[in-house]
Amino acid sequence: MAVEELQEVLDCPSKTLYYQVGKLMRAGLLTEAGSSRGSRRERLVYRALEGVLRMPEGFQGARYERLAAQSAVATLRAAIRRFRETADLAERQPELVDALFIEASTLKLTDEDVKALKQSMTALVEEYGRRETPGGSSVSMVCVLTPHDSRLTKSRE
């Protein structure tokens, strides 16, 4: 969407939206998708990045970590929506449902192992990305690694 379209949908001042769009672009979570003709002039159109979302080096810190968390939540919600839509097709298209897969784990790893796991996941996604072929099936994958603090879990139970 263009900022003007976002402004209409969100009922938010364009100055605020331009500021937020700039932050998202610097963080690598948003990109320019081209331009469109508005009522009076050409406007830039932005889109959220699909595929591998990574917090770039130099953007760590509480503000950007919250931004990354919000992006992860939006990505997970979209994945859940696609998962449910596919599950709803079970009777009509069982071959789609066969592709559904969930793996949830809590692991105790060293910092080095966590780094190695991130590198392995990145390499795996890149390897399968190179295998993409016309006419192949399209699948979505979301992998979220987050520190697990038992004190947080207990406070919500």
Question: Can you give a write-up of this model?
Answer:
This protein has 2 domains: 3-48, no CATH class; 62-156, no CATH class. The model has no long low-confidence stretch (mean pLDDT 75). A two-stranded antiparallel ribbon has the order 1-2. Helix 1 (3-10) crosses helix 2 (14-26). The chain has helices at residues 3-10, 14-26, 62-88, 94-97, 111-130, 150-156; strands at residues 30-37, 42-48. The termini are far apart. The chain is globular, with a radius of gyration of 19 Å. The protein contains 6 helices and 2 strands, in the order H-H-E-E-H-H-H-H. With 157 residues, it is mainly α. Strand 1 and strand 2 form a beta hairpin.
Q: What are the main properties of this structure?
A:
157 residues; single chain; 2 strands; two-stranded antiparallel sheet
Task: Describe the structure concisely for a colleague.
With 157 residues, this protein is mainly alpha-helical. It has helices spanning 3-10, 14-26, 62-88, 94-97, 111-130, 150-156, and strands at residues 30-37, 42-48.
